[in-house]
Amino acid sequence: MVGNIFIKAINEKPNIVLGLATGATPLPTYCYICNSYKKGKVSLKNVSTYNLDEYVNLGHHDKNSYYYFMHENLFNQTDIQERNIHFLNGNAKNVIKECQKYDKKIEKKPIDIQLLGIGQNGHIGFNEPSQCFSKTTFKTKLTASTIKANSRYFSKSKMPREALTMGIGTIMKAQKIILIATGKKKAKAIKEMLKGQVTPRCPASILNFHSNVEVFLDKDAASLL
Ligand code: GLP
Question: Which one of 50, 67, 147, 225 is at 20 to 30 Å from 87 when CA atoms are compared?
């Protein structure tokens, strides 16, 4: 269903700018886009993308990097052009500059549709629960909950404790936002996001202040609503 929204949007605007997320949640959407490309129903030749986040100290070719994940699960299976793919560099020497550069790039080519998953603790991108919303892209420390949830993806190596992420302000500038959540483990975060207060303690709650958001839930993720 979400896959089809993307296919329609790309066909309507072939040079669309997409903000993309990693994790298990968007995989069916990416699979749908790849299959549509293979069937000749869509081309990503003029599509540009920005990914939400990247682990600190993981090079692009590390199998646990989000850069690698996106190439495996979407980019390498379509005709997207590498020069249109934008990523934060987790190995950047000057992290502050890297984050500023990313925000400037996004300002020049703003995001039409931002795809989001949600962390069990209500995070979006790697905006962890905290005292305030971050306006811009920044380096963040991962919380124990995120480390526990994401460690399953790291078979041999130790999961990084820090990441670079688009800030809440950056995410909120997207013209349209689509959030997907599946599974019981997301039910509490979804309840807090939709029924609770808008607070940086549940970063996803800020989406209540965006005028064009669509939320897609399966029964389990919606079970506490
Ligand atoms: C990571 C990513 C998020 C993603 C979350 C949920 O922490 N930084 O962007 O939404 O994981 O992942 P999953 O879909 O695997 O539950």
Answer: 147
- Separation CA 9–CA 186 (nearest Å): 27
157-198: pLDDT as tens digits: 789 999 999 999 999 999 999 999 999 999 999 999 999 999
Query: Do 117 and 215 contact (CB within 8 A), yes or no?
Result: no
| Nearest of 29, 27, 67, 28 to residue 49 by alpha carbon | 67
Measured in residues, the chain has a length of 225
Q: Which long-range contacts (CB under 8 A, 24 or more apart) does 211-214 make?
A: 212/175, 212/176, 212/177, 213/176, 213/177, 213/178, 213/179, 214/5, 214/176, 214/177, 214/178, 214/179
Residue whose CA is closest, atom 11 of ligand 1? 23
| Burial tier of 50 (Cβ tally within 10 Å: 0-12, 13-18, 19+) | buried
CA atoms within 13 A on the CB side of 174: 29
pLDDT tens string 130-158: 999 999 999 999 999 999 888 888 876 78
The Cα 68–Cα 177 span in angstroms is: 24
Pocket lining: 128 vs ligand 1, CB cutoff 6 Å:
no
**With a 6 A CB cut-off, is 19 part of the ligand 1 pocket?**
no
This prediction's pTM: 0.96
Ligand 1 centre from 150 Cα, in Å? 8
Query: Alpha helices, DSSP H only, in the chain?
Result: 2-12, 27-38, 66-73, 95-108, 144-150, 168-172, 187-195
List helix spans (H) across 139-223. Answer: 144-150, 168-172, 187-195
